[in-house]
Amino acid sequence: MANTKSARKRAEKSELQRSANRMARSRMRTAVKKARQAVESGAADAAQAVAEAISIVDSSAGKGMVHKNMAARTKSRLAAAARKSAK
User: Fold this and answer.
1) d(Cα 32, Cα 49) in Å, to the nearest integer?
2) How far apart are alpha carbons 1 and 13 in whole angstroms?
3) How do residues 70-83 score in pLDDT, each as one tens digit?
4) Which of 23, 47, 49, 72 could be cross-linked to 35 through a Cys-Cys bond (beta carbons 3.0 to 4.6 Å apart)?
5) Chain-wide mean pLDDT for the chain?
6) CB 48 within 8 A of CB 35
7) Around 4, how many Cα atoms within 13 Å sit in the side-chain half-sphere?
8) Could you tell me which residues come within 8 angstroms of residue 28 by beta carbon, excluding any fewer than 6 positions away?
9) Would you give the DSSP letter of residue 67?
């Protein structure tokens, strides 16, 4: 447990940031999952779902929530799957 006032404040802020990061990471993972499902099922809105997922992944990488290479890899795989299903 934190002993000083500043350490208590830091612990509170860290917990708030942790919960915000968890929600944002969950939102990103959900968007990617929905995009993959839309592409696999051949849904009409698959391109929109992929674009939305790519946008969310980009913003997550920009905020440092995920590594930029992980974001690039995810976006590349989503785009490749979308191209493959469009054929």
Assistant:
1) 8
2) 14
3) 999 999 999 999 99
4) 49
5) 93
6) no
7) 3
8) 53, 56, 57, 60, 65, 66
9) -
